[in-house]
Design a protein that fits this description.
There is one protein chain. This protein has 536 residues and is mainly alpha-helical. It folds into 2 domains: 374 residues, Clc chloride channel (Orthogonal Bundle); 131 residues, Roll (CBS-domain). The chain has 23 helices and 5 strands. Strands 1-2-3 form a 3-stranded mixed β-sheet. A two-stranded antiparallel sheet has the order 4-5. A hairpin with a 5-residue loop joins strand 2 and strand 3. Helix 2 packs antiparallel against helix 4, helix 2 packs antiparallel against helix 10 and helix 4 packs antiparallel against helix 5. The radius of gyration is 28 Å and the shape is elongated. It starts with a helix and ends in a 5-residue tail after the last helix.
């Protein structure tokens, strides 16, 4: 993680030195262009990266990453951050930690480690990444445990995360020292009135975070729906980011909305900006974050939200001159992180560790809890889940392609009923089959119950087309098992043919109630074997 931080710092030191009106626009544009090119041509899944990929991998792929994409995504993140993209180092750091943790344990599977162990060590790697990038081991532990769920914790990863985060921190401080991330002058002492102010600040931050999250997801959906190549989208995002940096340069005198924003956060806490400048920073930084990250460029959103929270806190401080010092900006940082990522515990711990002020924990918790409540069911992450899944939830979340029967026995519309019974049903034991027309397209479904009303003397001359059900409920391979179960329940059917697409009526598989039950039984048997013979 030190290598990543030093590389980005050195690169930004070269590209971001003495930016003028032209270069302040050009540098982020080039950087995000490079980021998009790295993602599109050097990775197998360019649409997701950073913390989002860690969360998705935890929930949907059992902690197994696409390791081939690792170099390309790290290069993409370096391009984004080293050329002034409005993003944070924690995204690639968490991703790198998760990849390394999962990779190491997968190599040790022969020692008896399970899929759950892979997921736990992946979380531990993410905790180490946060710990290293922020010099905050407790933040790393709590954030990694909180972030997969919006209202639960990844408890099974606690001990591995603790060991990984502390080890990462101890190694890092040998190179960079133990000084906190942000400079806060003076020592803060908790006052009872401060808790009231912290609650008010939590309301303000919660409302601002809702607006930020809504705009971020709206632009992200628009970008994803665009037919343009990824590198064009990211280059456009870089151009917008550069223009916002130019606006900051003209209004404030420096392009504070570009880059990771560490120095800007320290300046906001120290009170270096007046109210007008703070309003400009809030508006321009929000636009720069959205332009950089919603366009698809690689980078983190943790520190950008910290800067927004500090800015909102400083604005509220300007309205209450009786409260001096860094209380409001620091507590605003915690509140915005809690509302944006649904991680209130990690948010309060972060401001204490990153500023060296343990006194900020209590007002930070108050503001975080209020902001979290005001923000409601919103999050910058669309991969977080609300609760820990049960076995049934995981089953319902599988794709149809994962459970369907691929070798489908079918009937032809021109077959006689006698041929259907004697040549299809008797040899296979299947009582219900899709019916294909002369072009091989699905045209109906037939069962023994359908042909039961045909007199036996007509079996040789009556066709399947005369008895079949013409209106067929179908599924696609990308549908969820839960959706299929709902269809079966609604229409009281036991078989659903799977077709190639909305216009493609070729039968590529079939799902039956027996397929779903067999999968559930197989999972139950696997869990029993894993638990051992002592389980009755």
């Amino acid at each position: 993680m030190t290598i990543l931080e030093v590389s980005v710092t050195e690169l930004w030191g070269l590209t971001g030195a003495d930016l003028g009106p032209v270069t302040v626009v050009l540098v982020p544009t080039v950087g995000l262009l490079l980021s998009g090119l790295c993602l599109q041509y050097l990775t197998v899944n360019p649409e997701i990266h950073g913390t989002e990929e860690v969360i998705e991998t935890f929930h949907e792929r059992g902690g197994v990453f696409r390791f081939r994409s690792f170099p390309g995504k790290m290069l993409a993140a370096m391009a984004t951050l080293g050329f002034g993209g409005s993003a944070g180092l924690e995204g690639p750091s968490i991703y790198a930690g998760g990849v390394i943790g999962a990779f190491m344990l997968r190599k040790m599977r022969r020692l008896g480690f399970s899929d759950e162990d892979v997921r736990a060590l992946m979380v531990a790697g993410a905790a180490a990444g946060v710990s290293a990038i922020f010099k905050a081991p407790l933040t790393g532990i709590v954030f990694a445990l909180e972030v997969p769920y919006r209202d639960d914790l990844t408890r099974e990863a606690l001990i591995p995360s603790l060991v990984a985060a502390v080890s990462s921190y101890l190694v890092l401080v040998q190179f960079l020292g133990v000084e906190p991330l942000f400079r806060v002058s003076g020592r803060y002492t908790l006052g009872m009135l401060d808790l009231f102010y912290a609650a008010i600040l939590g309301v303000a931050v919660g409302l601002v975070s809702r607006a930020f999250i809504g705009s971020f997801h709206a632009i992200r959906r628009y970008a994803e729906a665009s037919p343009w190549p990824l590198w064009v989208k990211t280059m456009t995002g870089g151009l917008v980011t550069g223009l916002l940096g130019l606006a900051a340069l003209l209004i404030i005198g420096e392009p504070v909305v570009l880059g990771t924003g560490y120095e800007a956060v320290s300046g906001i806490i120290a009170g270096e900006y007046d109210t007008f400048a703070l309003l400009a920073i809030l508006a321009l930084k929000t636009g720069a974050i959205v332009a950089t990250l919603a366009s698809g460029a690689a980078g983190g959103i943790f520190i950008p939200m910290i800067m927004l929270g500090a800015t909102v806190g400083a604005l509220v401080r300007a309205l209450t001159p009786a409260v001096a010092g860094g209380l409001f900006p620091v507590v605003g940082m915690a509140a915005f992180l809690a509302a944006g990522y649904n991680t209130p515990l990690a948010a309060a711990v972060f401001v204490a560790e990153s500023t060296g002020g343990a006194g900020y924990i209590i007002p930070g918790l108050v503001a975080s809890a209020v902001a979290f409540s005001v923000a409601g069911r919103t999050s910058v992450s669309h991969k977080q889940r609300w609760r820990r899944e049960t076995r049934l939830d995981r089953l319902m979340g599988l794709r149809v392609a994962d459970i369907m029967t691929h070798d489908v026995d079918v009937a032809r519309a021109t077959d006689s009923v006698q041929h259907f019974v004697e040549q299809r049903v008797v040899p296979t034991g299947h009582r219900c089959m899709p019916v294909l027309d002369e072009q091989g397209q699905l045209c109906g479904i037939v069962s023994l119950a359908d042909v039961a009303g045909v007199p036996a003397e007509r079996w040789a001359i009556a066709s399947v087309a005369e008895s079949m059900t013409h209106s067929v409920i179908t599924a696609r391979r990308d549908m969820l098992v839960g959706d299929i179960v709902a269809l079966m329940t609604e229409h009281d059917i036991g078989h659903v043919p799977v077709v190639g697409g909305d216009e493609d009526r070729r039968v590529v598989g079939i799902v039956s109630t027996s397929d779903i039950l067999a999968l559930d039984e197989a999972r139950a048997a696997w869990q029993w074997r894993r638990a051992g013979p002592g389980i009755s």
